[in-house]
């Protein structure tokens, strides 16, 4: 990963040369365009900003970062990112044990077009399913809202498939945990601001905005595999901490281990102005249920093992 000139080697905007991700490009031109381009464009096909806006809003909220983990559109982010519309009170309510999004709320991710199409732009993919694990806690105080107590800060969402028969560009997942001393690489939209909107006779107009992908590099210091039981640190569930600069908009971002080859976790929380952050472990969450009314027994691990959703099986020393 190449830093943009003028940036620190441990915290920088990603740049890169023109690359082709495969030696056998797809015959589908749309799929080929998604796998050809500069390094930063290719990573933006897989590491995506989480956004939200309601009908009539004058801006789009940039909430955090997510990563695409299957060809069919499974996405991983932080659970607290998914709960933001409820926690911040702009587009979700509790109904029983579920969080229900308002009909007029757009909540999902942006995936950029390849400039080879001849224009700059992106596709919006809304979350139409999501899974997070924990339980609601009701407050005895009338003026306090209910809150969700997380079992883990890992969350899984589902977006629509790419159009024209193309596939999303997924990242590799690892069951293995970080170990102290291992290098950790977080990729996310650290400094992406809210996006101004305008309205004309033809509808909503999205004004120009920056969508820079930042890389933050650090070293894992401690791991807390039993944190869901022992509550050693405030990050919910099995977790780890690492010494990297992690601004708020990187919440939910993938954290790579194995020398940058596989995702081992997601950014959970950080401390402003400090090189210290916590990540949620992915491995334990791979076994949690992804149930639906007519589907039981499905987990991230079973999706990887069956291969039906286009999730890579990665094996080898250190992965």
Automatic annotation (TrEMBL):
Q: Which is one Pfam family of this protein?
A: Trypsin_2
Superkingdom to which the source organism belongs: Bacteria
- What name does the UniProt record give this protein? Serine protease
Which InterPro entries does the UniProt entry name for this protein? Peptidase_S1_PA
